[in-house]
Write a structure and sequence with these properties.
Layout (H helix, E strand, L loop, with lengths): L6 E6 L4 E12 L5 E8 L5 E7 L4 E6 L1 H8 L2
Antiparallel strand pairs: 1-2, 2-3, 3-4, 4-5
Length: 74
């Protein structure tokens, strides 16, 4: 079972609605001064990537490119 601190609600770009999402992990990035957070939408199952700046503010949330590529190959 997922603990409450591993869940949040975000505007899922796949569902185009607010949905519960499950935390997948955090990774550093060289693209900007901050990090990337992975989420999975509980409504549609989409893997989401959120870019977070050094102050903790989210500035980009999109469907994971890896997930998009997998969907295209089916």
């Amino acid at each position: 079972m997922t603990s409450p601190e591993q869940m949040t609600r975000l505007d899922c770009p796949s569902c185009e609605d607010v949905a519960d999402v499950r935390y997948l992990g955090t990774a550093s990035t060289e693209e900007h001064d901050g990090h990337i957070v992975g989420w999975e939408c509980s409504e549609c199952g989409a893997e989401l990537v959120e870019h977070v700046d050094a102050t903790g503010s989210s500035f980009d949330l999109r469907i994971s490119e890896a997930a998009e590529t997998e969907g295209d190959s089916r």
